Amino acid sequence: MRPAPVSLLIGGRWLLAAIKLLIVALIVWFVRGTIAGALAQVSASRWSFAPGWLALSAILYLLALLPEGLFWHRALRALGQDARLGETLRAYFVGSLGKYVPGKAMVVVLRTGLIRSPRVDTGVAVAGVFLSTLTMMSVGACVAAFILAIWFAEDPRLLAIALGMMAVAGLPTLPPVFSRLARLAGVGRGSAAADKLAALKYRTLLGGWLAMIIGWLLMGASLWAVMRAMGIASSLADQLHLDTATVAMAVVGGFISMIPGGLVAREAVLTELLRRQVGGAETALVAAAVLRLVWVTAEVIISAVLYVAGRRRTRAEG
């Protein structure tokens, strides 16, 4: 076999570099738009905010995301991939920024691109992204439905919506359904990936569910911290169930809407449910905007830290 011409190799490297720069530019552009929109809403309000509580909200949010990242790692390991925990979490958090780009496909592109290696099959990594994301959304809808069934029994409409969300997100995660859907989508075609997907066990899924319940409770606590920063929250014990259901309904609704980052859809649900707690649509809208701003800022910071740390480690090993 004749070696590839040097000019062709150089051209391929330049093309790959250009594609990476384009992806970075897209993420920066859409994340900037998200932050600018939230800042505009917050700046126009008359509220003042306690920075300490906002910082706590950001920390709680990052901790809330951790179970999904850990589940993705566990699923990859269960599917025969030699994924390292550090590289999995790095790919998970950096890839989360892709949800602000239209289409949501950028999440899959970023996560699989960052974790792809001779030890991790790309097809299995893609399937794992869908599995972890859908599991997170399914658990959120289930948690919301449980809370609404107990504390909001007088409003069956909300319960019906939560159950519908749970079915849409949850059914594809069941091992037999997930394996069949992955095969229909061509995941792992021409490799051993499809056979590995068939080995997915219910115990792997159960572990993810239990961990993600904690994650959703932490998200509810993150919303509570934002409301404490505004001076409108009661004690965490009195409010956690309400805030958890509110966040879960909003995030899952935003995910199902397929709008980048759940914009508009998430805020609409948050505002409607928060209005019942705080007694006014304007206050609820400001709280939703602050929560958005805190969450996006936290994602940007952790992604930047992990991306740079990963680059330095790669250079050191090289």
Keywords:
318 residues, mainly alpha, 2 domains, 12 helices, 0% strand
Element layout with pairings:
Blueprint: H1 6-43, H2 51-78, H3 85-96, H4 105-115, H5 122-151, H6 156-170, H7 175-184, H8 193-197, H9 202-229, H10 236-257, H11 265-278, H12 281-317
Q: What would your notes on this structure say?
A:
The chain has 318 residues and is mostly helical. It folds into 2 domains: 1-34; 50-317, no CATH class. 79% of the residues lie in helices and 0% in strands. It is globular, with a radius of gyration of 21 Å. The chain starts with 5 loop residues before the first helix and ends with a helix.
**Helix/strand/pairing class, anyone?**
mainly alpha
Number of DSSP helices? 12
Distance between the termini: 28 Å
Number of strands: 0
Based on CA inertia axes, which overall geometry fits? globular
User: Largest beta sheet, briefly?
Assistant: none
* SSE topology string: HHHHHHHHHHHH
Give the number of domains.
2
Q: What is the average per-residue confidence, as pLDDT, rounded to a whole number? A: 80
Low confidence ranges: none
Q: In angstroms, what is the radius of gyration?
A: 21 Å
Percentage of helical residues? over 70%
Q: Report strand %.
A: under 5%
